[in-house]
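Late entry, flavin-adenine dinucleotide complex.
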Amino acid sequence: MVGRVAVVGGGIVGIACALELLDDGHAVTVLEPGTPGEGASWASCGSIAVSEVVPLSKPGTFARIPGWMLDPLGPLTLRPSSLLPILPWFARFAANARPARVEAIARELSVLGLAALDDTERLLARHGLSALLGTRPVIELYDRPGELAHERRFHDLRRSLGFVIDEISGAEAREMEPAIAGDFACAAVFRDWRSVVDPKRLVAEMHRVFRARGGIILPVGATGFVRDGGAVTGVRTTAGEVLVADTVVLAAGAASRDLARSLGAALPIEGVIGYQTSLPEPGVAVHHALVYAKGGFGITPYETGLAVAGSIEFARMDAAPNWNRADVIVAKARRVLPGLRTEGAERRMGRRPLTPDTKPVIGRLPGAPQVICATGHGQLGVTLAATTARHVRDLVAGRRPNVDLSPFAPDRFGRAA
Ligand SMILES: Cc1cc2nc3c(=O)[nH]c(=O)nc-3n(C[C@H](O)[C@H](O)[C@H](O)COP(=O)(O)OP(=O)(O)OC[C@H]3O[C@@H](n4cnc5c(N)ncnc54)[C@H](O)[C@@H]3O)c2cc1C
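Prediction complete; structure with ligand written out below:
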């Protein structure tokens, strides 16, 4: 049935949902108080990282955390003021590091990941935006063979699920990317990954197309919901108004947790900070996105220059950026690209909306079935936006999704206290 849909949040996930819903004939309004794409999306590495299905809480991660934490500029840190509030989330995160859970989560996420590139290509093609998706795979670099050997069990798991990962020598990696340092021992090539040419422009273009096709974007935020006899019938906005809707899509990234809580639902989403630095004149030519996992960052060639992005920082939602962390990963990027120049650098911060099981939240909110969640995509929002949007479109239409979405259901976390 065609109806009025309010999409809360116009990041990559929200605007992808909005475009899909417009295609189904709904009257769609997006509430977005900020500049399109300046949530988590603009800080990303921009990779369609389809096989990144192994959860972040994998075996081996926890042994390395104390060392990282002692180094304030290591790849992962936690600000002291957020230690106590985050403990329950961390306990759940740690529980998902058991090998059986890791395998189960990887299998569940692969259902989305295997469709992600096709869905992204189709969504972009339908709206004349195909030129915003690159055509090359992504290369992960290792200093020593032992590092690849450690990762191999996860690569094997990914391969067993249908993804394509090749192992090559450091010399072969250098043939593919002559600008990289000459002493990497080996590399993995993620054959089925791609990268977008600029995530901020991608989101902005999707907003433009959505508007041009009759969608409405209101420059306001959602402050809560209106209920009538238990059913959600609208969204309250920062303008003091109510937007009446038959269905609400909750796609507010890291802000989704508090909005869901106002409806009695518990979505344990942490806004995990990452940083990106755009280098307009990097002085090196790079054609593939590169990942240097040991340094906790990726390097992506965008149309505006090179972007160096990474870092995992747990901090309260009102915490100011620690730009030192962005600067450190740029300095570390010279390990990968010795000739890198940083003049004119521009820094961005984003909060990945991360759940303790690294899986997104897609489905109807418990106790408020008029609200459909499209959030919690963590480090995979760019990758899974189009696939999520296709499933949200089916859910709104009452069509049976073509895959089992129960692993992503919001009720897996229970009710809010
Ligand atoms: C360093 C880094 C590297 C990354 N690399 C990758 C990568 O290579 N590949 C990948 O797939 N993903 C990557 N990610 C993750 C990806 O960026 C996120 O998963 C994705 O951007 C989340 O999109 P979103 O639309 O859910 O959230 P956001 O982009 O944060 O958008 C949410 C929107 O909701 C709006 N909003 C907030 N509150 C309200 C409210 N009350 N009412 C209405 N609107 C509201 C915000 O203004 C915002 O625009 C990376 C992230 C970081 C930080």
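The mean pLDDT is 94. Will revisit in the morning.
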